[in-house]
Amino acid sequence: PRPKEKLLKSMPEDVEEAYGAHPAVGEIGVLARDGRLVALVVPQPGTYTGPRGAQETVRRALAEVSPRLPSYQRVSDFAIAREPIPRTRLGKPRRHLLDEAYDRARQGLGHGLEPGPMPREEMKPEDRALLDQPAASAVWDLLAKRHPEVRLAPDSSPLLDLGIDSIEWLNLTLEIGDRTGVALDEEAIANIATVRDLMQAVSAPARPGAATVGASVLDDPEAVLKPEQRRWLAPLTPWQTWLAGLVHRLIRLWLRRTFSLTVEGLENLPPQLPYVIAPTHGSFLDPFALIAALDRDLLARLQWAGWTGVVFRNGLFRAAARLAQAVPVDPDRAVLSSVAFAAAILKRRRGLIWFPEGSRSTDGRLQRFKPGIGVLLGRFHVPVVPVVIEGAHEAWPPRETLPRRHPVRVRILPALDPARLAREGAGGTDAERIVAGLQASVEAALSPAALPSDRPPAPPASEAAPRQTAPR
Fold first, then answer.
1. What are the residues whose beta carbons fall under 8 Å from the beta carbon of 382, sequence distance 6 or more?
2. What is the pTM of this model?
3. How do the residues of the chain divide into helix, strand and coil, expressed in percent and rounded to 5?
4. pLDDT digits over 84-96, tens only?
């Protein structure tokens, strides 16, 4: 899991200080929206002229600062404030008022730029020359088609202007590969800060030996992984297997005695692997609850997607991750290897535990599911098993150092058929429809208090698929 919102509990001031140090930023307040960080910004007077100038000045300022920060601290969208940011007597932003001020700013000023691609005659000569190259021109046309609602320019930021974040890089690079035959590697993606950088990257020759995106990520995922990465896919040694069994028994005892753990729906697990388990995520207690809920023999055949920023942050955590058979996932900075890990697990006919929200919920409400699980299910067509974990957020909220006694319940919902979700869900692609249908099915099983704050209970986009077996 990738708990981006941990930032807002412990260090929003650090992020605000980093961006606020830029001379074009007068004031800034950071908040979380749909699992992303966004900002309300008051530009520094004298650094711009007019509304469009303010928008462009702030956009460039944020784009300059973002590469210096860890991926989970980067702002992915912003709004220009017309009035000062609401503050306490001590000068700190009033966090509970930032949401309303951000919405007001978005509705009042917006981005201030006409949507659509910049005309070529308005571009610099070097940008026009770049667009004369077939691969660069194909990428420009692709971006214009994918993002008709924004102003597209060579200086546009893929993150701030186009919203290309996380696993969305995989979708884009797959489309680029289909249109141009050019494969991008992770190093190239990490160095792309503007649309111009992207066009230059597809026009440059590939580096020898680079791990590239394309069919190989899903069809031959282990070829994308380095030798030191592939070791996380290796089976446990007999000693590790014994120790993992002991830890499982201790975790189960802890959850039952301290949190009165109850488990429902074990019969909904498909009888054969591979399949994907998709739990809700509101607490660090969630993985422990799921470990305690499942049988040790089944856990031995499952692997977890664990965010590198937490699960793999030191030697002790890495040792525990190895016993749990977790693989390192960081979709913000290593999208290709993150998807390759998941694809390799499914190709090995093992089960995958993937938190579709990506990060913990800060308020206990369900968050928008990330598209990565839709990409995987759309390619491998294995059943997906939604799991609702209730009470863990109350037992161990994100802002607490230690858990407290509170009942925890794990509900395993009926398995869903991705093909049916792709037919009946909402969205423009199979992956989007699968994610939308999966989210709707989970929402239908939640209490109103656990639903996203912006919508009422929704019926599932597709009924639960009958239990099925994967072909051998």
1. 274, 275, 276, 346, 418, 470
2. 0.65
3. 45, 15, 40
4. 788 887 778 888 8
